[in-house]
């Protein structure tokens, strides 16, 4: 179906002689295969990540059918944008932390009683839909724009943003989880580019500086 980049995350066993035997002529894919210890590292250079999951886990992500997702991915690929399709392991699929790294969740509309497909089936469904979308020449080319920030750049921004919120005592002792999830979704929908992120980093740095000045002033007043 045209896929040539495969990334494994913390595989139980690799390299393995069975992998080479079962590759059926896809030696070039194995030759370029990458192994990473965790999902953030695996998708660090990608601007978009779509996570495949059969179960709704209480994560308020956009939920797309395979064809909808394939059309979005094809549009991104035509802009020379790196996109990751993220599949969980055979036993338990993607967990909540992994899904939170994604811009959208893709759910194959199987019947509720047998909602989970095995890994190979899920990969083939998405590969087929994406192949169809890429072959569709009727889709107009996208309007040029600066590429969105990579996953690694977004994670760096989220760390800075969430640290700043704690620095200015934004949460006032309340749980930070809900607001952080909502902010993640907001900025993932906005798809900022690298220059826009630099502006946001500057805003956060100024907020941190003002918070430090306010603390130092309060501490000075207490001492006197």
Describe this structure in words.
The protein is an alpha/beta fold and 224 residues long. The chain has 2 domains: 7-135, Alpha/beta knot (3-Layer(aba) Sandwich); 151-223, Helicase, Ruva Protein, domain 3. The protein has helices at 17-22, 27-31, 39-42, 66-78, 96-99, 119-135, 151-167, 177-190, 194-223, and strands spanning 7-9, 34-36, 48-52, 62-64, 83-86, 104-106. The strands form 2 sheets. Strands 4-6-3-5 form a 4-stranded parallel beta sheet, with helices on one face. The protein has a two-stranded parallel ribbon with strand order 1-2. Helix 4 crosses helix 6 (119-135) and helix 7 runs parallel beside helix 9. It is elongated and about 75 Å long. The model has no long low-confidence stretch (mean pLDDT 89).
Descriptive terms for the model:
elongated; Helicase, Ruva Protein, domain 3; four-stranded parallel β-sheet; two-stranded parallel ribbon; Alpha/beta knot; 49% helix; 224 residues; alpha/beta; 9 helices
